[in-house]
Amino acid sequence: MMAFKKLVSIQEIEVGKLTVIKTRHFSVAVTKWENEYYAFEDSCTHDGEEISCGKLEGCVITCPRHFAKFDIRNGSVLALPATEPLTIFPTKVNGNDLEVDLESV
């Protein structure tokens, strides 16, 4: 069962830019791309670097430390040295709020 909770107002999210929200258990990076909202754990699966400090190009984020690449839509690894996908959180818009399910991961 999904447990969506408000994370941020959609007005705070810019297309192609990352917004990081710290929750009790996670740092969550959120962005909007092609009219969809995406949320993922702000941690490279290779070494734990804050991936939000990296470069976001379209739906691909590059880790600033060792240049691992991930698809923000599904977390898949696109370039080594990472071998594990990013943790992706389900999102939905409710009015002006972006709600994220942090419990289903």
Automatic annotation (TrEMBL):
Domain Rieske: 5-100
Pfam families: Rieske
Keyword field: 2Fe-2S, Iron, Iron-sulfur, Metal-binding
GO molecular-function terms, A-Z: 2 iron, 2 sulfur cluster binding; metal ion binding
InterPro entries registered for this protein in UniProt: Rieske_2Fe-2S, Rieske_2Fe-2S_sf
SUPFAM superfamilies: ISP domain
Superkingdom, taxonomy of origin: Bacteria
Record carries keyword Transcription: no
Name of the protein: Non-heme iron oxygenase ferredoxin subunit
